[in-house]
Structure formats: structure tokens, C-alpha cells
Amino acid sequence: MIEVHDLHKHFGGFHAVDGASLRIETGSITGLIGPNGAGKTTLFNVIAGVLPPTSGRVTMEGADITGLPPHELFHKGLLRTFQIAHEFSSMTCRENLMMVPPGQSGEGLWNTWFGRKRIADEERALAARADEVLEFLTISHLADHKAGQVSGGQKKLLELGRTMMVDAKIVFLDEVGAGVNRTLLNTIADAIRRLNQERGYTFVVIEHDMDFIERLCDPVIVMAEGKVLAEGSLAEIKANEEVIEAYLGTGLKNKDKLEARA
Asked: Which stretches make up the ABC transporter domain (predicted)?
């Protein structure tokens, strides 16, 4: 679905992404791991149009999407979440989801005067759809709560819910488990798996929790110093000496430490 060809992103003399090439297969849940500063989030930002690349190319389903802005990628079904959830804090969880679909009738000034019934009908349908999403994510009890007042893990679920309000094809999740307790992390993992299996979503996941990666992701791609270092199953990644050195800097003699950390 997504192919990245020799991608570079430089900030002055710093090469955050330095010739990365990779392929994301349709229907996969691909893990992206690596040490802090490996370039994972910058890679996400370039693919998702948040940052322009210095050079290189990104394609989606064979079409060149290099440098397209996020709103155009949104309409193509490419969505991205962030380490820190970006909710509308003063709106309810239901209202946050209802905001997502584009081209709503209420956005037009003319319709606010002469299309009130159409707006009301549309909002009822959106509210029903939002309630279905909240039920799917097991947070229907939060529908009328202000989004700014729910927990960090619940905000992450709400971000996942936003992707369900449109026809997402591929979703990039950046540290979805950061600051989330184990119970909610399991709920998030279950939701990701169900979206993948039941609705055909493709996911790419940056995550430092190796239990989470092992539970969900195959293949796993490892980045280090802006480059793709290795790709394979997590078992293959754990046995790769280059990967071990990237994490620990001391080679195979510390392999057991990597496995213990994972």
C-alpha cells in the first residue's frame, strides 16, 4: 500500500531520516521500532505530509503522494495520530467524533439559513455513528463527558475512534501506548486488531512497549540513525546482532538483555 523510496529529511546538518526505504503491505499491522532519535516520528511526519521531505519519494497504492498536505492525504484515507492526543477539550467525546467527517452541511453559511432540516438530519446520523464507534471502543459511557476530562488512555481510544468516522485505509499510530495503563493498552490493542481483521484497516505502529508490538505486529521494521536497519518478525529482530547493538551497543553477548527488555 505504502512504498518509501530513499527518503531523506534534513534539519540543517542533522539527517533525521537518512535514505530510508520500506514497504507497508495492505492489511498488515506493521511495527516501527528503534532507539530514541532513530527518526521514526520524523518518518511518520514526512509520509503523512506534516513535514516536506528533503528528497525521496512516497507512493500510496502506486500513486505518488510525496509532499501532499495532510488534508489531501486525509481524503485519500491516510490518517496519523500523535504521541499526545489532540482532542477538542471543551467538547464531549461524541462531539469530537462528529467533527471528523468533511463536507458537512452545517459548514456552509447558506445552509445555516435555508437548510436547517438537512443539517439536523445529518447531525442525528453523525451522532448515531459516533455512538456506534464509542460502543466499539468500549467507551460509550464517556459519550457526554468533556474530552479534556477523560484519561490519557481514553483520549488515545478517542483518537482511534476519529479514524473510524471516515473511510480510513491506513493509520499511522505514534506511541499509542505512551502514558497508558496496562488495562487500557489491552483495550487499544484489541480495537486495533478488530479494525484490522473486521474492517480491513492497515496500521503502522511506533511503540516502545515490546509486549504490545509482539502481540500485534508482523512485520517489524527497525530504524537507527535515520535508516532502516532490519525487517522481519519480532523473533528475527531479536536475533539480529545489528539491532541488538543499535539498542545496547555491545553485540550478541547482551542478547539476553534485549530479550528480557522485550
From this structure: 2-250
